[in-house]
Every structure is written in C-alpha cells, then in structure tokens.
Amino acid sequence: MTGTVAPLRRASTRPVGARRRVVVLVVGVAAVAVSIVISLSFGSRPVSADQVVLGISTWLRGETPADIGALAVQSRIPRTVLALLAGAALALSGALMQAITRNPLADPGILGVNTGAALAVVIGIAFLGVSSAFGYLGLALIGAFVTAFFVYFVGSVGAGGTTPIKLALAGAATTAALSSLVAAILLPRQAVMDEFRYWQIGNVGRADWDTMSVIVPVLLIGTVIALLCASALNALALGDDVAVGLGVHVGRIRIVAAVAGVSLCAAVTAVAGPIGFVGLMVPHAVRLAAGSDQRWLLPLSALGGAVLLTLADTIGRVLGSPGEVEAGIITAFLGAPVLIAIARRTRMRAL
Fold first, then answer.
1. Can you give the pTM of this predicted structure?
2. Inter-residue contact 226 to 212 (CB < 8 Å)
3. Tens of pLDDT along 91-124?
4. In the 3-class helix/strand/coil scheme, how is 189-222 assigned residue by residue?
5. Which of 148, 109, 117, 111 is closest to 135 using CA atoms?
6. Domain 6-345, CATH 3.90.180.10 — does that match?
7. How far is CA 324 from CA 44, 62, 91, in A?
8. Domain ranges in the chain?
9. Is the pLDDT score of 196 beyond 50?
C-alpha cells in the first residue's frame, strides 16, 4: 500500500518519554475503572454507590438481590462488559488499519468493514434463518473480509496506486451502498424491525454472556496477534524499503495485521452491529498523548476505546431515558467533528 506517511509520523517528531507513557497508561487504567462505575451507576434508573456495591457483590455470589437498584446494577453488568470489549477491539482495529495503510483516515467504519459485516449478518437472519451466535460470527467474518478486500481493490485502481484519499472515498462509497442494502432488507420487515434495528446503528444493549463467550476467543487471538505485530509495524512506519532493510517481511506483516484488525471488527459487529468512529478517534488521541510507538499505541488505544464506548453507551441511556439512544449514534456524533478536523489538517497526496 502506498500513500503519504507524514500525518502518522508527525506525532513522533517530538520524543515522548517513558515516564509520560507510563502516566498515560495509569490514567487509562483509572479511566476504565471510572467508566465501569459510571456505567453501572447511571441509566434510566440512577442508583447509589451502596446499591452498586450490593449489585456487584450479589452477582459475584450468583444471588438475585431484593433491592431494585442492586437488581438494575446486575442487569447493566453484561452490557458494560460488552461495551468494554467492543470499544477496545474497535480502537485496536482502527489503530492496526491506520498503521498498515499509513492512512490517518483508516477506521473500520469509514472503510466499510463493519457495514459489510452487518450486511452479511442481516442477510443470514432474513433469508437463511441464522439465529445462533456462531452463525452471526461466521457471517460477520465473511462480510468483513469480502468488504475489506473490495475496498482495497477499488482504492488501488488508477494512477498512483493506493492513497489515503482514494481508500477513504472507496470506503465511504461502499459504506453508503451497503447501508442502503441493509435498509432495503430491514424496512419491509416491520414486524421484526426492533429485532434488526441495532444492525443499522450499533448498540450494546442486547449483551448476554452466551453470545460474548462466542466472540471472546476471536477477540483474544486478534489482540495477541496485534500486539505481536507492534515492533514490525514500527518499522513499517519508516517506509517499505527501510522496513525490508530491517528484516521485516512487509507483505506478510500487512496481511497478518489486516486479518487481526478485520477479525476484531467483525467479532464486535456480530454481537453489537456497526459502531463507527471509535477506531478513528481513539488512536489519534493516544498518538497525541503517548507518541506513535506501536508497542504503546496499540494497548493504550484498547484502553481508550473501552472507555469511549462504555461512556457513549451510558450517555445514550441517560439521554434516552426511559428508553435509550444507541451507542453508535453517540460515537458518530462525537466522531464526525474529529473526522472533519483530521481531514482539514492532513496533507494527502491525492488532494
């Protein structure tokens, strides 16, 4: 893949010390803990700190509390866990895509990967009768990989090969087309619209332990592969020729990292629908705070993504009370200005 690397390397022109990165790591871990408490405490029914403690303690013991507030806390635990897992996976996926394409606009949502996964799942539900978590995961993986290949193919056609702007345009066009197909499948089926609604927008409100147990192995494997690729991705940021001189198999590392990134995105989409902009916003914020070293960027992005999506889900529950606003709407509302700012500040060769 080709394209200017300046936007992703600019943050590394000022060295970032290890102490600062450790501070960012500690802040990230603390933010995750705070976001968990906020997610369990707020929603359509606010609860007290004592009820949060009671709800968690009784859940750990496998008991059903008599207190309504504690019971509400227990009901929020699965969706909080899913928000943490999904946010971490989407941010990590976005960081990988930005690294392997050297494209500051790379994101599972912008490149159409999660919409492709959602379309495959919707087709499976509507026409094939798929209803199991394993079926959703398999279809999401197929849809995500087919879409990723298609977007890269379209973005590489023409003079200059693959450039950031061509990839972004190919992804945006593909996302629009696939979203229209999803809507065309869902709209005539009003009786099951609520069942399918979150495949258009993205939401973690349908979390359950059985479904999460299906995707956790994929998330773990994808995360391990991503972290193992960190050093090679650092070399890749210096340019293909330099990376080859440092002993990196450029083609192989791009394929392995891409498989990890697409798999992370597909697994999340299989259970939560297409949630956009998490993979775009978080890596850029982490890069500003901790530099571009992928050995730090990848794990810190996972922490940041977990915090962002958990808080987005909580905000949606509070704003939409007694119902809820889908987390995908909140992340889109937050992410659109970020996308505009990145596009304005980024110098892209195709422009």
1. 0.88
2. no
3. 999 999 999 888 777 888 888 898 999 899 989 9
4. CHHHHHHHCHHHHCCCCCCCHHHHHHHHHHHHHH
5. 117
6. no
7. 8, 28, 23
8. 6-345
9. yes
